[in-house]
Write a structure and sequence with these properties.
With about 300 residues, the protein is α/β, with parallel strands linked by helices. The protein has 12 helices and 9 strands. This is Anti-bacteriophage protein A/HamA C-terminal domain-containing protein.
Amino acid sequence: MRLSIGDNDFLDSFEHLWEKDIDENGTSKLNLFILNINANSFDYSCLVRNLRDPMIDYSVSRKIKEMYKQRPGTLAHEAQKKFKEYINNTGELGELLLYCFLETHLNAPKILSKLELKTSTSMYVHGADGIHMLKLKNGNYQLLFGESKTIADLTNAFRDAFTSIHDFKNEINKEGQEKSGINYEKSLVYANLDKEAFSEEEKEFLKKIIYPSRERDFEVDDAFGIFVGYEIELTEHDKKLPNSEFRAKVKEKVSEDVINRISYINRKIDEFKLYGHSFYIYVIPFTELDNNRKSIIKEIT
């Protein structure tokens, strides 16, 4: 199945500092990216430029994109309107960033986004932040459920992400609504495959991905994609450093921040007994997280 994003320009917004195994078996990965640095500041304008096209891919289905392929201006307008309405109710930039990383870095095609499944401002606010599919080297597949958190404190962001995953897996809904959780999510995806421009062959294949079938000659396991955006503080002294020293200091600081949380991540996996699942985690540090998140959303809508 093809990716919904047309190119990998999104990744040009960042420097990929490293990828590390979370577990001893190497089934879960932790990736640290930082925004490009220009004159001792994160280059948010570059990220904004490289989010405009993926915002369209995220907000509208392949079917809608196909309908408007000769009318790019109308397509952009429809996507912006849809994204703006959705984002005004959630304020969550992380879902879009997670979608971009799963498609461009992990090469895991979107099946359906949370925005596509959401039918009103009061429905479907507790589900996964998008559903993707990943083909493994051994020919088997993973069904990826997304979870994104943008919280200033990194530990709290990881805590909330894994708590949400635990509740999602165990179909715990703190709002008291009956329909929620991983099995309900699969039923929603199954029922909404027609929203995407999948061929009949692709639809039949995706149905086998979602639910077991005796005709299936591959295995499928549930996995999770996680995006975490957190806040780092830079002093006036830091900002006055020579450019090369500033870059080195920021990279050292954020690398230490994230490496020091690996043991915490494993503790949460143990606490919630999330064994058997693969986790693909993407972390980005922000300065003035709340202000820059709002500014990015405003710029792309």
